[in-house]
């Protein structure tokens, strides 16, 4: 899926603006970020470095391009 024209400010559910939420969760080695795309919610582990955050996000994006599952 893609952002609507106009970006995050135009995310809507039932005609209402839908907030995009990022929630930090406790760090666990090997844990990837997860999302509930129907409610624009991202669970992002509190990685110890920017490099690991970037790497884990890229892995999650790559894996997510293969399909979806309930998180």
Automatic annotation (TrEMBL):
InterPro entries: E3_ubiq-protein_ligase, HECT_dom, Hect_E3_ubiquitin_ligase. The active site is at 38 (glycyl thioester intermediate). Pathway: Protein modification; protein ubiquitination. GO terms for biological process: Golgi organization; membrane fusion; protein polyubiquitination; ubiquitin-dependent protein catabolic process. GO terms for cellular component: Golgi membrane; nucleus. Keywords: ANK repeat, Cytoplasm, Membrane, Repeat, Transferase, Ubl conjugation pathway. Coiled coil: none annotated. This is HECT-type E3 ubiquitin transferase. It comes from Dreissena polymorpha.
